[in-house]
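Design job #97: recover the sequence.
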């Protein structure tokens, strides 16, 4: 049996604000796919201060949503998918039903990266920011501020996966919703 090779991808929610950058890395953290995606319902705010993307960049290099979705679905088919907040990312690209949950390694929902606390005698798990997880588990400080780098996020998630990939499926996708 061939071992499945993991891929990470990062995409931010589809809104009228421009947040559509899709990145796929291989297990060695090399970028294998990076595209600016043009949403189907237009863009009212490019949020350049958040991620540095300008209207000119999108008009020169952006690809239609349907093309990107097809490319991404082919890339991720039968692959372990690693990322932060995969539910939102996969749903944004209309891929959440195409990739089985047991193929997800989500650093936002994994028991490994949740903070455990007791509330009224019950143990509850709270979701940490990727920045907090990177500091705690990799001793890496991610840049602060408003600028968001999806490639850096992708690399952090893949490094976390590589460090903890031998943990049980329960540690990765235990029910925390």
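Job complete. Output follows.
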């Amino acid at each position: 049996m061939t071992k499945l090779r993991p891929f990470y991808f990062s995409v931010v929610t589809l809104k009228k604000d421009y947040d559509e950058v899709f990145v796929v890395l291989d297990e060695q953290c090399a970028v294998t796919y990076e595209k600016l995606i043009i949403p189907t319902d237009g863009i009212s705010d490019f949020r350049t201060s958040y991620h540095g993307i300008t209207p000119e960049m999108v008009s020169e290099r952006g690809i239609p949503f349907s093309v990107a979705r097809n490319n991404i679905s082919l890339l991720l088919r039968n692959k372990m998918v690693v990322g932060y907040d995969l539910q939102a990312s996969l749903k944004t690209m209309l891929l959440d039903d195409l990739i089985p949950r047991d193929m997800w390694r989500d650093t936002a929902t994994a028991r490994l990266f949740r903070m455990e606390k007791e509330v009224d005698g019950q143990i509850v798990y709270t979701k940490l920011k990727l920045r907090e997880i990177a500091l705690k588990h990799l001793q890496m400080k991610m840049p602060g501020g408003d600028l968001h780098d999806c490639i850096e996020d992708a690399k952090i998630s893949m490094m976390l996966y590589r460090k903890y990939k031998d943990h049980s499926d329960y540690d990765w996708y235990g029910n925390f919703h």
